[in-house]
Amino acid sequence: MTVQLPEGLVLNKLHTVTSDIDGTLAKTDEAMVKRYAEVNHLTYQKAYDEFLVKTDYEGRGPFIDKYIDDDPDFWLNLPTYPKDIQALINFRSHTFYSVERLYFVTARPDHLRPLTEQWIDKHFGILGYDGILMGTKDHKDTACEYVGSQLHFEDHFKEAKLVAKAGIYVGVIDQPYNVQYRDKNKDYMDKIFWVDSISDLGGPFA
């Protein structure tokens, strides 16, 4: 995807970047659908339609509570979007684009913090990060403001709008569930841009 950055966003002038985890760096929905298919003896496509398309976040809650939340193996072995992780590593380590602070902002509840930390440590290695803000569903804007984020990466457009409304640039991952917003919603487009992957920024991020 060719990325058109918002006017005013200068990548080599950033000191603080934040990123969502699930759907941005981790293939969490895909893993949840597979678990749903296994439990209910469904094909992947049938499970996808039932679990993600026909059921909202709150409706998925009971299944997640029962079959996923307390399963360490699920959280520790989540598959990644490797290009996105590498792009963030490059953001952090590249001399010209070196970002001083990197935070993860996630809707996951705080009891998953130890497993989340282990997963991040596994994939980001010694590069490190500056913190994880947990339980931020519907108020990622406040979390991003709190740490002084200048650029946030997010897979849910509704969350992205809140962050953009707070005056923070947002790279929205162009997931299938964002299709309805891609060209129709123009709110805060001076702060929002779309990417298939963070690596679409090119240069040292590719």
The number of E-state strands comes to 6
Using the CA coordinates, give the radius of gyration: 17 Å
Kindly report the CATH topology of the largest domain. Answer: Rossmann fold
Taking pLDDT < 50 over at least 5 consecutive residues as the criterion, the unreliable ranges are: none
Broad structural category? alpha/beta
* Sequence of strands across the biggest β-sheet: 3-2-1-4-5-6
Helix content: 40-55%
Order of helices and strands: EHHHHHEHEHEHEHE
Mean of all residue-level pLDDT scores = 89
Report on the structure:
The protein is about 40% helix and about 10% strand. It has about 210 residues and is of the alpha/beta class. It has two domains: about 10-25 and about 80-205, Rossmann fold (3-Layer(aba) Sandwich), CATH 3.40.50.1000; about 30-75, no CATH class. A six-stranded parallel beta sheet has the order 3-2-1-4-5-6, with helices on one face. Helix 1 crosses helix 2 and helix 7 crosses helix 8. It starts with 15 loop residues before the first strand and ends in an 11-residue tail after the last strand.
List keywords for this structure.
206 residues; alpha/beta; Rossmann fold; 2 domains; six-stranded parallel beta sheet
Summarize the structure.
This protein has 206 residues and is α/β, with parallel strands linked by helices.
